[in-house]
Automatic annotation (TrEMBL):
Every Mur ligase C-terminal domain range: 316-438
Reaction it catalyzes: UDP-N-acetyl-alpha-D-muramate + L-alanyl-gamma-D-glutamyl-meso-2,6-diaminopimelate + ATP = UDP-N-acetyl-alpha-D-muramoyl-L-alanyl-gamma-D-glutamyl-meso-2,6-diaminopimelate + ADP + phosphate + H(+)
Family annotation (InterPro entries): Mpl, Mur-like_cat_sf, Mur_ligase_C, Mur_ligase_C_dom_sf, Mur_ligase_cen, Mur_ligase_N, MurCDEF_pg_biosynth
UniProt keyword terms in alphabetical order: ATP-binding, Cell cycle, Cell division, Cell shape, Cell wall biogenesis/degradation, Ligase, Magnesium, Nucleotide-binding, Peptidoglycan synthesis
Residue span(s) of domain Mur ligase central: 108-294
Similarity remark: Belongs to the MurCDEF family. Mpl subfamily.
Protein's UniProt keywords contain Acetylation: no
Protein name: UDP-N-acetylmuramate--L-alanyl-gamma-D-glutamyl-meso-2,6-diaminoheptandioate ligase
Binding site for ATP: G110, T111, H112, G113, K114, T115, T116
Amino acid sequence: MKVHILGICGTFMGGVATLARAEGHEVSGADENVYPPMSTLLESQGIDIQQGFHSSDIPKDVDQVVVGNVMTRGKAVVEDMLDQRLRYTSGPQWLYENVLQDRWVLAVAGTHGKTTTASMLAWILEYAKMSPGFLIGGVPENFGVSARLGDTPFFVVEADEYDTAFFDKRSKFVHYHPRTLVLNNLEYDHADIFPDLDAIKTQFHHLMRTVPSNGLVVSNSEESNLQDVLDKGCWTPVETFASSSPDATWTVELKDEFGGEFEVYLKGELQGTVSWSLMGQHNISNALASIAAARHVGVPAEHAIDALSEFKGVKRRMQLRGEVGGVRVYDDFAHHPTAIETTLSGLRKNVGDKRIVAILEPRSNTMRMGVHEGRLAESLALADEVILFQPEGLDWDLHHVTDAMSDKAKILESTDAIVDYLVSIATTGDQFLIMSNGGFGGIHDKLLTGLEAKL
């Protein structure tokens, strides 16, 4: 089959392209933002990528166009595709029909922690010699790729609630039909898609309706919004997990205050102790969810615990990009106040009173719309200093945040200005935490280069 993918360089669609190529299909694609590492990864697999969306780039003998959710009516390539009556589908639908339909799907859903939990789960299955396939919205360090077909029926997928395509406004995850479903948490997000939290709960319940009665739902018992979803109707056994409550199916007992070592309990019985390099309460919750989900496909909890002790983390999830002269530069994907707060909390517990400088790019659609404006200052409170990047076209005034934080926060309007400032203040022991769900203009490498020149 000859497949052309519109929006191929997004993490999800790039993963679809990787899987399509692995299945032997001839794959090409186009995107407006073609840059490494996704572009080089796809090109290394023999996938032809075009910059920009042009109808002439769609092969004349294409069998199917896979349409990413960045595509909208009015784009010339979309209008021509429809006028020519080309066969087209969405990425999630293509994934189900060509990869997931006959497999045991383990899906990880939630506002936060999907990528990390899915990565943990895939690694546990790999450690157990189960050679799973996976499609994850990040790059697990244990694998070095975000997607692969795998050699067994098991497939781990990050289940995103964002909409599917311009012609299918359901959430992506309703296409996956999981047998094992993890529900991490649920908050209001994606304000460009959902009018309110209840609309997201409805989509989550649509997902619940697809899980068979011989499946398993693994749900965070500390999240009342998830309980609301379950109360709408659940036809599947449920196991709960909690990082700080003793009443769930899966619980923990911390052995140190940083979360680097903790005991895992199943219905009050000790299963083993996780010792790892990750930090933060949120990662403990992610670990419990992944252990429970892996047990559903036959991995004993003690084996899952051993696997997690060798889990290396995920790129762009509190990833240490480099250290120069005792100054550490981290890259993190946080772009929601809850994620920002939990990331800072984990780092603060780990580094004590060392100076933390948080650098935030308000890039997501929800952030750019100002939906989280009222919570942002509070979520950044654990940082000693905050730098806010001022992008073009922001729908609200960042000064509302800096005013709330007094002289602790400042606004800068270019990545170069941010780098120059950070280099000027850098001293041994500083922790520079850069948070964005995009490339942020290559700021990480620029900063490390600047620090090397100074220190």
